[in-house]
Amino acid sequence: MTNPTLALENISKQFPGVKALDGVHFDINAGEVHALLGENGAGKSTLIKIVSGVYKSDTGSIRIDGQAVTFNNPREAQGKGIATIYQELSLYPELTVAENIFIGHAPHRSFGPLKVVDWGTVYERARELLASLNIHDLDVRRKVGSLNVGNRQRVEIAKALSINARVLIMDEPTAALTETDVERLFEIVRLLKGQGVGIIYISHRLQEVFELADRATVLRDGQYVGTKAVKDTSEDELISMMVGRTIDNLFPKLPAKPGEPVLEIRNLTRPPLTRNVSLTVRAGEIVGLSGLVGSGRSELAQVIFGMTPAQSGEIYIGGQRVHINHPAQAVKLGIAYVPEDRGTQGLVKQMNIRENASLAVLRALSRASFIKRGEERTLAKNAIQQLSIRAYGTEQIVNKLSGGNQQKVVISKWLASKPKLLIMDEPTRGIDVGAKSEIHRLMSELAVNQGLAILMISSELPEVLGMSDRVLVMREGQLVAEFDRTQATQESVGAAMMRVQAVNGSS
Ligand SMILES: Nc1ncnc2c1ncn2[C@@H]1O[C@H](COP(=O)(O)OP(=O)(O)OP(=O)(O)O)[C@@H](O)[C@H]1O
Ligand SMILES: [Mg+2]
User: Fold this and answer.
1) Whole-angstrom distance, CA of residue 444 vs CA of residue 467
2) Collapsed DSSP state (helix, strand, coil) of residue 319
3) In angstroms, what is the span from residue 454 Cα to ligand 1's centroid?
4) H/E segment holding residue 64
5) Where is pLDDT greater, at 45 or 180?
6) Are 364 and 218 in a shared domain?
7) Whole-angstrom Cα distance, residue 120 to residue 230?
């Protein structure tokens, strides 16, 4: 038998207050996609940071082709062919595509004692590298800041592969991608697999695991649970390995009794991506907003919330005509918005969970009384418990939480802010299955028991179908179809999303 390309044995890592990893095994062969699974905070990112030389493990060994290695820094890991794409993207927006790809190891030319970056070669090599990934439509001289997320991701991949990679680690690469971008990413993964690169793939979307991976390893609370060949396992089995129990209901939806309209918009327009949109969301109702990426869903949310105010059209809140030209006005009117990009918009990362969970956006803006520390702590404790946020307590700095647990803090903050209308953009992206079903349950309860009106944008069709009382479909900035809960199916909504001609569902 040949040695695996990379093998990890008995890896442990202690952080202050948390044993992030405890005796974990993992290995990867050439040309294999090996998924690494586990709930938020299970230790996935920590494990890959050990493989890529960011952290040192407390115990255990790393072998490459059977030879023990130690990495003192990321450069040493890269030197052995370990390429990593981290959960947090790490590009410089002000630099060009090519500069980002070769930052730190640009080809040089010597003029006597002087070493000068050879820009001609940098651009040429960047083009070659992208071409080798079948990417031909990306200008290497463009600033990365001007690219969309899908293209940034491609630059990240090219950057990771600018070393001679044998193992490529991808930590939740699809969390921020649209469907078309996900497809293109999968093509790149298959291409690399065909070239014999071993790929470690982290994702909370089990569908992707079944589509891409050969094997899956599950971690729970920092411990190794097991490894399965994907063809011999099922979603249910993997979920119960991750969560330690089975989850019978991912979409615990309660029957809704919609009340009076909370939000009504008429012919709302802000070109190019909000064109003549009219819709109503009633108290106690969850309205799902479906559509392909780029169809204008997030843009519509931002118009309603006053981030990019409408140019024409009308907004009514509780039957009253309002003008929303700034988020502060939206907040005063009882609108809350959980943005898609929570990393930058939702949290103050240097503050702890208690401060963030009660971050008094609503209260500060409406100049109501500030919250007492005791109340804050209760709020934070509830959040930690309800959404099983993996932290040592309410005083933990948010920066030190795992990616998914940071998102839970944002969601809990908005759920606790008691708005009349809650707009959620991709509410469960990057969140593990157990907590996902918990967030769904909270959404449904808040709607039914407290009359909250919810407008939910989601690219996951099962989530839209599972949670919505009505489903609206957007295409090219316009609403093109509407289905009630009983009519909305994978086929009907899917067809409306794709079709070029407008379709009329019944309303
Ligand atoms: N630098 C750090 N300092 C202290 N604790 C940390 C640090 N990094 C991670 N942790 C803790 O280690 C545990 C594992 O975190 P890790 O980021 O590996 O989880 P994960 O499996 O990647 O989760 P997610 O799916 O949310 O990304 C968590 O409890 C986290 O709070
Ligand atoms: Mg992680």
Assistant:
1) 8
2) coil
3) 31
4) strand 59-64
5) 45
6) no
7) 45
Gap from CA of 321 to ligand 1 centroid (Å): 46
Are residues 35 and 146 located together in one domain of the fold?
yes
**Helical H segments across 260-400, by residue range:** 297-304, 327-332, 342-345, 353-357, 361-365, 373-386
Ligand 1: nearest atom to the Cα of 46: 18
Q: C-alpha distances in angstroms, 196 versus 129, 165, 189, 199, 230?
A: 17, 10, 11, 9, 19
What is the Å distance from ligand 2's center to 276 Cα? 40
Q: What are phi and psi of 436, to 5 degrees?
A: -60, -50
- Which ligand has the shortest distance to the CA of 86? 2
Can you name the residues that pair with 279 across neighbouring β-strands?
Answer: 265
Domain span including residue 210: 6-243
- Identify the CATH number of the domain in which residue 183 sits: 3.40.50.300
d(CA 336, CA 262): 13
pLDDT band for 371, please (50, 70, 90 cuts). low
Give the closest residue to 13 by CA, choosing from 61, 47, 45.
47
Mean pLDDT of 484-502: 82
Q: pLDDT by residue (tens digit) across 127-152?
A: 998 988 888 889 999 999 888 777 88
372-409: per-residue pLDDT in tens? 677 778 888 888 888 788 888 888 888 888 878 888 88
* Statement to judge: residues 408 and 464 lie in one domain: no
- Exposed e or buried b for every residue in 429-460, given b needs 16+ CB within 10 A? bbbbbbbbbbbbbbbbebbbeebbbbbbbbbb
Domain match, 78 and 227 both:
yes
Domain co-membership, 378 together with 425: no
Q: In 10 A of CB 226, how many CB atoms?
A: 14
Cα gap 359→376, rounded to integer Å? 9
**Which has more pLDDT, 385 or 51?**
51
User: Does any ligand 1 atom lie closer than 6 A to the CB of residue 453?
Assistant: no
Residue nearest to atom 8 of ligand 1 (CA): 400
Q: Where a domain ends, among 370, 390, 418?
A: 418
Dump pLDDT digits (tens) for 159-198. 888 888 899 999 988 776 766 778 888 998 999 999 999 9
Please say which residue of 228, 243, 258 terminates a domain: 243
**CB of 274 sitting under 6 A from ligand 1:** no
Which residue type does 324 have? Answer: I
Q: How many Å apart are CA 366 and CA 272, to the nearest integer?
A: 32
Question: Tokens in use for 71?
Answer: 């990495």
* Ligand 1 touching residue 405 (CB < 6 A): yes
By C-alpha distance, which of 197, 206, 191 is closest to 35? 206
Q: How far apart are CA 329 and CA 317, in angstroms?
A: 12
Q: What tokens appear for 320 in the block?
A: 């009253």
The preferred substitution site among 24, 36, 45, 397 for testing ligand 1, maximizing ligand atoms within 8 Å of CB, is 45
**Tokens read off for 22:** 């405890």
Cβ–Cβ under 8 Å, residues 305 and 479: no
